């Protein structure tokens, strides 16, 4: 067959995923669609389920899994970064504070873009910096819309609570005051991919002296607008 890569197991796994592209399938449906032997189709579907490329629906049928959406979101990162520069620069100019964009990677978050404050006291987070998911408004935003099991795990040892995260979901933004670093305050809002999943957090951070102990009152609206602009850019380019 001309779409063979020469790596048999990958070719068969690709057949299973392609069969699920048109919708949920029982094991018998997979066998019919792929032409694979029943034990092979079952073994591959279960292995793909283990890696979250395949999942099950309420009827126990095989469906495409969440890992594919996560990889698609990561593939959109170049679109996100292409749009991030002007948006972060504008946010910095409007707020007068350093602006950052964070993505989650496992148990950490990474600063993937930033616009630094031009003068005076800065809260500098260089691009490429890896920060914990246990503290800070960006961590709250990246955690707040997670599935319950992952949310529960993430809250262990965190400086914020489940109640705080439910407030983040209600408001659509998060703030922290000295949570990640003494004397530093921040406000963050979610960027969503085409599937509405939170793929990044936009933040503004600076000294509590400037941002006060209620930084959201000052800056939440500007940050939510910036996050919405990036969400729109992702939907326009990759929806």
Automatic annotation (TrEMBL):
Listed Pfam families: HTH_IclR (PF09339), IclR_C (PF01614)
Domain IclR-ED per the UniProt entry, residue ranges: 67-236
Ranges where the HTH iclR-type domain occurs: 7-66
Keywords attached to this entry: DNA-binding, Transcription, Transcription regulation
Source organism: Streptomyces desertarenae
Name of the featured protein: IclR family transcriptional regulator NdgR
Domain of life: Bacteria
UniProt-listed InterPro entries: GAF-like_dom_sf, HTH_MetabolicPath_Reg, Tscrpt_reg_IclR_C, Tscrpt_reg_IclR_N, WH-like_DNA-bd_sf, WH_DNA-bd_sf
Key word Transcription present: yes
